[in-house]
């Protein structure tokens, strides 16, 4: 499992514990439950969904320093029906109660992202298009939400600003042409600059190799088609223009991938995929995902 993912999850769990306990105790549980009481419970799905984060539960419980054993009952990326047990926890009854809400919050969020992603992936089955997420993630949750996207069958776009060039309209608006400093940066010059920089060193840091540029029309698309970039993001293109871009790329015989983005939703994604684009990116996978309802049920041991 990814060490960076583990580090991010543990930091988030520590923050969540601080929110719940501050520097005190779970007073209700201390008052009601004997310290020697043992018990067992299962985290159970209240609705149908796709699992994500279930395999990470031991890391969550570990941050509570709890006297609990964790048994993971389903794999990641698995479809499940209402009533499916996902995890079993056993040990200190106090620790079960104190860790309940934080654990459910984290798993409910990740399963929700995976479930929505799978709905999108199902809509483009049979096409050549791959579904990608974006940086429109909950602050502090990026790696966790991106992990959940992969559990749902999606793919990860760049993680952050550090691991890929993505030239957008604001870069062109604020940048300036090297030939005419009073003119905005053209898509052609921007793409050429990034291609020249990729893989090189800047201030002793190694620049990323992936170069992508966002274009908002076929004119811009034609400017950058043969610049050697890896991906062209077709922003808010009509279906007709998406098909035209795919045809132009294929006719030129270049290996650049085409990515459709902008106003992609569950109702439109199948038609977008049918245009022949290689990639579809949507922020909806994370910013429109709702929590999956999970609960904790006590079991006899």
UniProtKB/TrEMBL annotation:
Residues 113-297 form the Quinolinate phosphoribosyl transferase C-terminal domain. Pathway: Cofactor biosynthesis; NAD(+) biosynthesis; nicotinate D-ribonucleotide from quinolinate: step 1/1. Its EC number is 2.4.2.19. Substrate binds at residues 101, 134-136, 158, 168, 214, 235, 261-263, 282-284. InterPro entries: Aldolase_TIM (IPR013785), NadC (IPR004393), NadC/ModD (IPR027277), Nicotinate_pribotase-like_C (IPR036068), Quinolinate_PRibosylTase_N_sf (IPR037128), Quinolinate_PRibosylTrfase_C (IPR002638), Quinolinate_PRibosylTrfase_N (IPR022412). One of its GO terms (cellular component) is cytoplasm. GO terms for molecular function: nicotinate-nucleotide diphosphorylase (carboxylating) activity. Residues 26-111 form the Quinolinate phosphoribosyl transferase N-terminal domain. GO terms for biological process: NAD+ biosynthetic process; quinolinate catabolic process. Belongs to the NadC/ModD family. NCBIfam families: nadC. This is nicotinate-nucleotide diphosphorylase (carboxylating). It comes from Neorhodopirellula pilleata. The lineage of its organism: Bacteria, Pseudomonadati, Planctomycetota, Planctomycetia, Pirellulales.
